[in-house]
Amino acid sequence: MCQIFAGQDPADYEPETRRLRLNGQSTSIRLERSFWDILDEIAASEGLSTPAFVSRLHSEVLELRGEAPNFTSLLRCACLIRTRQTALRPLALAAE
Protein backbone atom coordinates (compact mmCIF):
# COMPACT_ATOMS: atom_id res chain seq x y z
CA MET A 1 0.00 0.00 0.00
CA CYS A 2 2.71 2.52 0.87
CA GLN A 3 4.11 2.29 -2.66
CA ILE A 4 1.05 4.16 -3.86
CA PHE A 5 2.10 7.05 -1.66
CA ALA A 6 5.87 6.62 -1.61
CA GLY A 7 6.11 5.99 -5.34
CA GLN A 8 4.50 9.24 -6.44
CA ASP A 9 6.31 11.54 -8.82
CA PRO A 10 8.39 14.07 -6.82
CA ALA A 11 7.26 16.80 -9.23
CA ASP A 12 3.75 16.44 -7.77
CA TYR A 13 4.85 17.57 -4.33
CA GLU A 14 7.51 20.04 -5.39
CA PRO A 15 6.72 23.44 -3.85
CA GLU A 16 5.68 26.18 -6.24
CA THR A 17 5.35 29.85 -5.34
CA ARG A 18 2.87 32.04 -7.18
CA ARG A 19 2.55 35.78 -6.84
CA LEU A 20 -0.92 37.30 -6.78
CA ARG A 21 -3.04 40.04 -5.25
CA LEU A 22 -5.33 39.49 -2.28
CA ASN A 23 -7.56 42.47 -1.54
CA GLY A 24 -5.25 44.72 -3.53
CA GLN A 25 -2.12 43.57 -1.70
CA SER A 26 0.63 41.81 -3.62
CA THR A 27 1.61 38.55 -1.95
CA SER A 28 3.02 35.14 -2.72
CA ILE A 29 1.61 31.75 -1.86
CA ARG A 30 3.70 28.59 -1.75
CA LEU A 31 1.91 25.28 -2.25
CA GLU A 32 2.81 21.89 -3.62
CA ARG A 33 2.24 21.58 -7.36
CA SER A 34 -0.61 19.08 -6.93
CA PHE A 35 -2.57 21.61 -4.91
CA TRP A 36 -2.02 24.29 -7.56
CA ASP A 37 -3.30 21.83 -10.18
CA ILE A 38 -6.52 21.33 -8.22
CA LEU A 39 -6.92 25.07 -7.62
CA ASP A 40 -6.43 25.65 -11.35
CA GLU A 41 -9.24 23.15 -12.05
CA ILE A 42 -11.57 24.73 -9.48
CA ALA A 43 -10.92 28.21 -10.86
CA ALA A 44 -11.55 27.06 -14.44
CA SER A 45 -14.82 25.42 -13.41
CA GLU A 46 -15.87 28.77 -11.88
CA GLY A 47 -14.88 30.65 -15.05
CA LEU A 48 -12.06 32.47 -13.25
CA SER A 49 -8.31 32.64 -13.40
CA THR A 50 -6.60 30.99 -10.45
CA PRO A 51 -5.48 34.33 -8.96
CA ALA A 52 -9.04 35.69 -9.26
CA PHE A 53 -10.47 32.56 -7.64
CA VAL A 54 -7.96 32.64 -4.76
CA SER A 55 -8.60 36.34 -4.23
CA ARG A 56 -12.38 35.82 -4.20
CA LEU A 57 -12.02 32.94 -1.74
CA HIS A 58 -9.83 35.09 0.50
CA SER A 59 -12.42 37.90 0.43
CA GLU A 60 -15.23 35.49 1.30
CA VAL A 61 -13.24 34.06 4.21
CA LEU A 62 -12.65 37.59 5.52
CA GLU A 63 -16.39 38.26 5.29
CA LEU A 64 -17.33 35.06 7.10
CA ARG A 65 -14.53 34.78 9.66
CA GLY A 66 -12.91 38.21 9.85
CA GLU A 67 -9.51 36.71 9.12
CA ALA A 68 -7.77 33.69 7.66
CA PRO A 69 -5.06 32.74 10.16
CA ASN A 70 -3.50 30.12 7.88
CA PHE A 71 -4.73 30.79 4.36
CA THR A 72 -2.43 28.25 2.69
CA SER A 73 -3.87 25.51 4.91
CA LEU A 74 -7.35 26.72 3.98
CA LEU A 75 -6.40 26.37 0.31
CA ARG A 76 -5.13 22.82 0.86
CA CYS A 77 -8.36 21.91 2.68
CA ALA A 78 -10.39 23.45 -0.16
CA CYS A 79 -8.54 21.08 -2.51
CA LEU A 80 -9.43 18.13 -0.25
CA ILE A 81 -13.08 19.17 -0.27
CA ARG A 82 -13.02 19.35 -4.08
CA THR A 83 -11.32 15.95 -4.32
CA ARG A 84 -13.89 14.37 -2.00
CA GLN A 85 -16.78 15.94 -3.92
CA THR A 86 -15.34 14.66 -7.19
CA ALA A 87 -14.88 11.17 -5.75
CA LEU A 88 -18.43 11.05 -4.38
CA ARG A 89 -20.13 12.38 -7.51
CA PRO A 90 -20.14 9.02 -9.40
CA LEU A 91 -21.59 7.28 -6.32
CA ALA A 92 -24.43 9.81 -6.09
CA LEU A 93 -25.21 9.41 -9.79
CA ALA A 94 -25.23 5.63 -9.48
CA ALA A 95 -27.72 5.81 -6.61
CA GLU A 96 -30.25 7.75 -8.70
TrEMBL record:
The keyword Transferase applies. This is Uncharacterized arylsulfate sulfotransferase-like protein. Residues 15-80 form the Ribbon-helix-helix domain. Keywords: Transferase. It comes from Polymorphum gilvum (strain LMG 25793 / CGMCC 1.9160 / SL003B-26A1). It comes from the Bacteria. GO terms for molecular function: transferase activity.
